[in-house]
Amino acid sequence: MTEGLQRRVRVPRPLLPRRLASGRGATEQPNALGDGDARLDLNFWAMLILTGIATGLFGDAMMLILRVVQRVGYGYSVTTLAYSAGISFQAAVVRASGVRRIEALVVAGVIGGLAWYLLRQHTPGEKTDVEDEVWNGTGEISFRRSLGTSVISEIVVGLGASLGREAAPRLMGAASGSVLGRWRGLTTAQRRLLVACGAGAGLAAVYNVPLGGTLFTAEVLCGALTLPVVLPALTCATIATVTAWIYLPSHATYTGIPAYGIGPSDVAWALLAGPVIGLVAVGYVRLIGWVSARRPTGRISAVAPLIAFLILGVAALRYPQLLGNGKGIAHDAFLGIGGIGFLLALFVLKPLVTALCLGSGASGGLFTPTMSTGAVLGGGLGIAWSLAWPGGSPGAYAMIGAAAMLGAAMQAPLTGIVMILELTHSGLDLTLPLIAATLLATGVARYLDGYSIYSARLPAK
Questions:
Q1: Three-state SS for 365?
Q2: Cα dist. 355→23, 406, 407 in Å?
Q3: Are 75 and 92 in contact (CB under 8 A)?
């Protein structure tokens, strides 16, 4: 009995010590218990605010680098400092000649291969694996290696590598938290939480998704939806997102998405497609794990990205949409653009070229490539389903497929659902099929395997 009472002591104690007339305590609610190992004191909150500001500024800087490189590589024009584009990156890539695409990827391979090789040679043992440091380490992230990795990553993604743009701001957010935590002498537990908040805030800042970034921190990195995690995560993500509005837009990342309605066919499709997407997610995550464990080392790592990017360039002669992180692919799918053959071809090729780039030793994110894979799979399967039960929209099926794929591949269903709603500022009427498909896909993936795109990438011990 005494041990049970001790476990229900609030730390810190509330300012109003008097209990309710019932005599029951606020700690009857599990998420209102103590802060745990990471005490949320004034020192921690001060560093959290600074981490949010730094993460937002680094997000702007990384996206500026990305856009400048895209403009040089493909004529993708940024017309104002408010980050409005004359044409989309995918349109610029499609408009470019096959020769120009290959030339851009050759430059990416040469720059990326040599730069990453030299960076790793001069920073041996310095840590940049955010998930490993949050889950198993002490929250020690190397700032100089993170900065170098991030800049190189944005350059190669801007030139067409099939990797996500969010890895750089996510890493810089984590590195900012690590540096500030060390500076102020935070405990290991506080520093780990600060690093997790910075990483989630980096994702939030560049996609304008403060709720999604919060859930990413809580559900993926911390594995706990409790007040001592959600409060700092939400604070950091919000500060970073607002700070990033200095350069990045305040509107949805995917604009112009219709408000799709819901019908019986959508719900039925979600119930059938969810388990299928879960199976696909297991294979996708296993592929990521397989190539991550076989990344080249030594001098061969300096030329491996060039070889991989050349293969990607050849594939892009037929499917230029494969270049970049996949934002254009997902956007078109959400709008219902594309036939079944085209969508399913992208579904097969996008994971393969993403794994190829990652396996070459290139550093980059997997969030948007994973989402775009789910979007084209959902859109393709949805068109086929409409032949049997007309009435649904391919764009709606693409949104459902994207949420399910994200939830299953990240092993974070809440994050997957909220991300799609927040990225598009649409889809509230699709909430039920979004939940159904994501629940089933994540459940199947967890039951069969349990790895995620983040745990599968962890280096060998």
A1: strand
A2: 58, 16, 19
A3: yes
What SS3 class is residue 164? strand
CA distances from 293 to 310, 375, 461 (A): 22, 27, 11
Region label for 23, one of left (φ > 0), alpha (ψ between -120 and 50) or beta (otherwise): left
10 Å Cβ neighbour count for 88?
A: 14
Half-sphere exposure of 338 (CA within 13 A, CB side): 31
Other C-beta atoms within 10 Å of 459: how many?
10
Residues with Cβ within 8 Å of residue 122, at least 6 apart in sequence: none
Region of 338 on the Ramachandran plot (φ > 0 left; ψ -120 to 50 alpha; else beta): left
* Residues listed for the chain: 461
Question: Could you tell me if residue 254 is left (phi over 0), alpha (psi between -120 and 50 degrees) or otherwise beta?
Answer: beta
How crowded is residue 98: how many other Cβ atoms within 10 Å of its Cβ?
Answer: 13
d(CA 115, CA 65): 16
Q: How many CA atoms lie within 13 A of 288 on its CB side?
A: 27
Q: Would you state the structure tokens that stand for residue 178, as one six-digit string?
A: 């690590």
pTM for the structure as a whole: 0.93
Pull the structure tokens for residue 372.
């775009």
pLDDT in tens, the chain (461 residues): 344 444 567 777 778 877 788 877 777 787 777 788 889 999 999 999 999 999 999 999 999 999 999 999 998 665 433 333 335 888 899 999 999 999 999 999 999 999 999 999 999 999 999 999 999 999 999 999 999 999 999 999 999 999 999 999 999 999 999 999 999 999 999 999 999 999 999 999 999 999 999 999 999 999 999 999 999 999 999 999 999 999 999 999 999 999 999 999 999 999 999 999 999 999 999 999 999 999 999 999 999 999 999 999 999 999 999 999 999 999 999 999 999 999 999 999 999 999 999 999 999 999 999 999 999 999 999 999 999 999 889 999 999 999 999 999 999 999 999 999 999 999 899 999 999 999 999 999 999 998 999 999 998 87
Cα–Cα dist 93/111, whole Å: 20
Scanning the structure block, which residue is given the tokens 């889809």?
Answer: 427
